Amino acid sequence: MKKYVYRTKEEMATAAAHTAAEAIRSAIRSKGQANVILATGASQFEFFHHLVAGEKVDWSKVVVFHLDEYLGLGPEHSASFRKYLKDRFLDKVAPVRAVHFVKGDAEDPAAECRRLGTLLRTHPIDVACIGIGENGHLAFNDPPADFETEEAYLIVQPNERCRKQQLGEGWFKTLDQIPSRAISMSIRQILRSRELVVTVPDTRKAEAVKNALEGPVTPQCPASILQRHRNCSLFLDEPAASLLSHR
Length: 247
What we know:
- By secondary structure, this protein is of the alpha/beta class.
- The protein has a single domain (2-189, 205-237), classed as Rossmann fold (3-Layer(aba) Sandwich).
- It is built from 7 helices and 10 strands.
- It has helices at 9-31, 45-54, 81-88, 109-121, 160-168, 187-191, 206-214, and strands spanning 2-6, 34-38, 62-66, 68-70, 98-100, 127-130, 153-156, 182-185, 195-200, 232-237.
- The strands form 2 sheets. The chain has a 7-stranded parallel sheet with strand order 1-10-9-6-2-3-5, covered by helices on one side.
- Helix 1 packs across helix 2 (45-54).
């Protein structure tokens, strides 16, 4: 894992966006198409801004997947991750080659997981742009995360700390409004990505960052598995890196 610490969130996001864009451009040069995973959440706001505004990418050669979605939310719900990606990315770039959303409102969530898994088998991921949750989660894989399943997507139950993070970020007005289940890309599927660009700002992520980088690899801190990825770049601002023993 390569770690980069920046003085400000903007500097961090600019560097992460450039690294992600170069990985996308490299995949397009080598095979004519890039398959990309995009995360959502408040920690990715600046990253998306710089990826869209500051980098030149032929988006018509990019296939987009995303990590997760609440069960039962339609694509127009203010907290839907599909709406997030549409508003903050898809509406701001030239049309992408394809986008494969997680349909949280699918009638059969298990069938939706299988559908997405089939698509991923024919679209090996070149670069995954992801974050780390306050409890160390990757996507909606809360501790203790399943490190063993080979399934690409899972039906999961976000835990209370994860749900409180969503509330604190302003996606819902009350805890009771947050759906109790979600579809999430699995840990092993995330790790199948050729390159990982991980963007983690803010003091509220400092404990998770320390556990992920300096603690043991354990399902109790899902992000600790990133230590084992051979091409992972972690971008931090100083507040997120504030608890690390070695900056």
